[in-house]
Amino acid sequence: MALTGIQILKMLPKTNCGECGVPTCLAFAMKVAAGQADIGLCPYVSEEVKEKVGEASAPPIRTVKIGGGDHLFEMGGETCLYRHEKRFEHPTGIGVLVRTDMAEDEIAGRLSRFASLRYERVGLTLKADIIAVKDAGGDTGAFASLVTRVRSGCPDAALVLMSERPDFLSSGVKACGDHKPLLYAATAENAEAMAALAKEAGCPLAVKGNTVGETAALSERLQKEGLKDLVLDSGSRTLRGSFEDQIVFRRAATRHKYKPFGFPSITFPCEMTEDPLLESLITSVHIAKYAGAVILSDLQGETLFPILLERLNLFTDPQRPMVVQEDVYPINGPGEDSPVLVTCNFSLTYFIVSGEVEGSKVPSWLLIKDTEGLSVLTAWAAGKFSADLIGSFVKKSGIENKVRHRNLIIPGYLASIKGELEEELPGWNIQIGPREASHIPAYLREWRPA
After folding, report:
1. Where in the chain is the domain with CATH 1.10.15.40?
2. What mean pLDDT comes out for the span 338-363?
3. Statement: the pTM of the whole predicted model exceeds 0.85
């Protein structure tokens, strides 16, 4: 159970020294209770207090990290059952399976697609995250060799090493170097050996039962062995069964604080069907409800891209608008006679407008005004995209030193502020642009400075 601010205050020195960056111990305790500060910032609390507060304030689903260095994949850390209650924390990891018994061209193709299928959208790079390497031939040398190949060919991939034999996984761990893979998987038959390997290697361990109940028992058993970083697999390989199991995991952890299920989960759509389109559908269900990672049989652009978009939409914080930085953005190599446009910093607006400007092939200057992530009309209605604010931004932006003309194109929906804006910007000619972004290319091709 989470501790209140008063309960945390009783464990603090109450000296109000301010060394934690907060003026008083009470204020610091309240921040810790709200999850806005770490108890470790206080230099005078004991390790016992740190552990007690840390456990009490930890999210009901533990954050598990795979990888190392600059390429660290995090899963879990979730605190709620529904996105609108707060937000979802760590996007579902999307992975592809490679096996030691695959033909060379199959392995090469999957690794190549993992490295090349990357998409830029709203300022983010959308891509797959995980490669699962599976021992399918019983050859420890082949398994370690494939792990080495994956590590060198796809260094940014988080790895899942899959084998029923701890000695095979041990050889794979050695091939990973300082990369910490997820070891898959501890079962009722090999739990003791897998636990020993996970402890020795310092790697997270997947727990696979044949049922939800068996998975819970294994999780509890491994926690008693001292393992803290676990990933759950209920063993179900049907859409309905897996879907129901994911809900059981999340609900039990977030609503009832059931510790055996307080870990992220991993699912295998690649083992549920041989139809690539059905596999994509199953994956989309698991991303929504509530897999920490999904492993696909292959990656293809026509199925991967919509999955990545679904994940982006679900894991965007609903309480925090996506924004781009206020600035002057040159597009298509503009010069002194290029048109100047202004719009808001809501990321979707920016990327739609900038995409249309880029598509027009007309060199242009795009001024992005900070509207706190609101769209054009919403920002104008809220008083954050008014004539005086736009005028002040244009003056301080430095655009007057970049162009010889004095023409500013504003969104068509802001036509009513034309007169006010001309008063704010003496000497400037305010031009009314299109209402729809799709009309921008034609407008710019016909544009001439006044």
Report:
1. 5-57
2. 93
3. no
